[in-house]
What we know:
With 339 residues, the chain is mostly helical. It has 2 domains: 145 residues, Glutaredoxin; 177 residues, Glutathione S-transferase Yfyf (Class Pi), Chain A, domain 2 (Up-down Bundle), CATH 1.20.1050. It contains 10 helices and 4 strands. The protein has a 4-stranded mixed beta sheet. Helix 5 packs parallel to helix 8 and helix 8 packs across helix 9. It binds glutathione. Keywords: Oxidoreductase. It is an enzyme of class 1 (oxidoreductase).
Amino acid sequence: MSDGDEGNAAYGHKAFKRSRSHFADRITADGRDGWPVEAGRYRLVVSRACPWASRVLVSRRLLGLEDALSLAVVDPIQDDRSWRFTLDADGRDPVLGIRFLSEAYDRRETGYPGGVSVPAVVDVPSGELVTNDFQQITLDLATEWTALHRPGAPDLYPRARRDEIDTVMAQVYEDVNNGVYRSGFATTQEEYEAACAGVFRRLDLLTDRLAGQRYLVGDTITEADVRLFTTLVRFDAVYHGHFKCNRWKLAENPVLWAYARDLYQTPGFGDTVDFDHIKRHYYEVHTGINPTGIVPLGPDLSGWLTPHHREELGGRPFGDGTPPGPVRPGEEIPAQGRP
Ligand SMILES: N[C@@H](CCC(=O)N[C@@H](CS)C(=O)NCC(=O)O)C(=O)O
């Protein structure tokens, strides 16, 4: 079996193409799409394996939205009905009462024929999917959910820096976030080489950028760092081997490795990462590119906790704000998912 979006390339012998999110309603302060920001009304459904969903996990923690937006974590292994709540008692999400995420999609659109993807935000009272628009959800958490942010929450999308953040994020998306998928699911040598070369060309440029500055834009953590982090944290565990992005390992690039460790060790980043879910999902689910489903034992994760010395570059991680507090009880990463 293969990811819905990703299966076309794995089996169809055509270039990997990421599908656009089908449900693009926005949850906003003024509720203009019919979905007003409201504490406790929505449920965020993620796979901790998924880099697009992981963006939302990090933003939710940094902004302190855990009480306002509850969390459901799916099993990292889908079956033929896609994402399922088999980690929960009786295989049902305790709040939505459903066994498969597809049930929320069906409630929104009867007979919805498209793929079921995470991240997904579901309206709890009606059980309907509101949005699976992974490019917009985090921007809205940063800019529309402000009334519910914790005291000391950082500004992840500062108005004065948006043009620069958007430019960096577009490059990171094309060449890195999605580039690794185009490399991994390529079905011709040319396609693979172009995608893989593009990944490393961009990582080289990002290395230059990050050699002398702690964060991608300005001197604080922004949405751009959240989006680069979610790919870097998976790099050696899955993209280097499984997706054949193997010119070098992250741990062999002193600048990016220190940058990634710095973020990993910042509250709100590493405490959302489950390496066990990441490895099992990629290696077991994408049987088109790993037919045995064997999950490798490595890499050694202990390096993630080693000193990074990036504070010597200055920078104010949370700007005028503060780091988030401890992880919410029940949302801790089990020991097998941590270094
Ligand atoms: N293309 C997705 C972006 C998110 C995405 O690709 N998520 C993957 C997991 S990393 C997914 O849920 N794929 C569908 C599946 O695996 O069944 C969308 O249209 O919103």
